[in-house]
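Methods — Computational structure assignment.
A single polypeptide chain was analysed. Its primary sequence is given first, followed by the predicted tertiary structure written as structure tokens.
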Amino acid sequence: MSQPSAVKPARTLSFVDIVERMPPSMIQLLTVLAPAIHVMHHALLLVTWRGGYAMRVQSWILLVAYVQLCLYGYEVLRYAPQLLVLALLAYTWLHRSCARITGHRRASDERGSPEQLRRALVELADVSDFVVAMHECFVQPIYDVLTWQVPGYGPVHLVLFLLVTWPVWLLCMLPSHMWLTHIYSTRTDLMEWLGGAPTAWAHRAWAASLALWDARIAPHVPSLCFTAAAWLQTHVVPHLVRAAAWLTSSPTYVSLQLWPPFPIASLSVRHVLLFVGVLLLSWCSPWATLLRMALWRSAFVRHSVMWLVHALSGSETLAASLPTPKAPLTSRPRTTQHETPFVFEIYENQRWWIGLDWTAALLPQERPSWSDSDNAAVAPPASFALPRSTSVLLPSSHTTGKSDRRTSEWRWVDTEWRVAGVVGVSSSTYTPAASTTATDAQREEARQRDSVEVPDEVRRFARPADLPSTSMDVDAEGWQYGDNAWDKFSKQNGMGRYTRRRRWLRKAVLVQTVEYGV
């Protein structure tokens, strides 16, 4: 019976250790892509409003630039696309000039340097954390709903929601000239509203006010108030009269849309892109975070959101899992953890000998008795061990002067190995005979796996749990029979079948923990 591997102490890897364990081709690729990684990381800081006051100013500039792009992007691309190239040339010229004045090194001067490689590793780790978080929170749930992989009636509710909102979408997006009936609106002229003779009307109103003043109010007001009124009559009233005359003489109209009301027949794709983009770019801003926290304290808002989530997903547990007002929505945790499930696959190989039947005694030039999918030697289930934990310290991308500890740890999910395609056959019920024990090479392989960290070798016999496995035609015990050259496999045993194999599976999970600012 196989036992779970003992917990081994985590090894702390430095930057030099990481570089030594990376293949030269990976280092070369990382060096070439370092500028692109830096741009992605800088864009991530802008979108998430991190990096201090200077980055927040740049985030505001990005938000304003996106609004201008939505409003005037089509016109610029249609009538003056040369402005884009000119703007890019101006930006690069200013960047080079500032770098020359401040004495900063250019990216071309740092290419291939250890500082660039270290910075690329740190920025790539930060981008990876963001991508993993987006995948878990948004991409994977949406993909599960679209592929009917969620329990309940989530996809059905989504279909109903789309069918109900489609007429509303058409009402809002169709232009007014495409309607079957006219969209009636009233246009009110300011000249008619003011009586047709604005200048005369203003003078009559002023004369009436003066008569009222002289007859009833003036005798009871001190001389100071009378002086102020005279000043207003001399300096203010003429300007008001001229302004009223200009408004009424200009062709100014006030259009009031009576039917249909806003936003019906008033929106376009540009408005949708503007709204969605501004919402996404400002989602992580401090003021948007404070506004969401204030709104989430409202019971009406919480119940409305929970009802909408329940209506779309059909799951009460998903709606109940929304955070309470006491739990901050956007506070960044000090420690994050991500689990990736894998399935380990190893093959048991046997050959048929006259007088010996099926045994693990194979020819020297062929595959070993226990191998991976590429016929390389691996340890049998009884001595198969997971890679031990690793801990890496990298400069923190959130706190200056501190480091982020990234720990990777393997854990078994299944208690025993099992045979693919067979129910009830596991390593707990399998007792190898003397002829099927591990060879010296396999024992050495197991010892090396226990003593040396070789994460790349896991890829030989492990695959992500969400990827489908290779289909095999097996018999009741999971065996697949082939000819003398280990070819033409099928579940039929008989004449001409001298080799056989079966696949053993066991699930494990890779737990990746990130501690920020240690």
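Note: The first strand starts at residue 11 and ends at 13.
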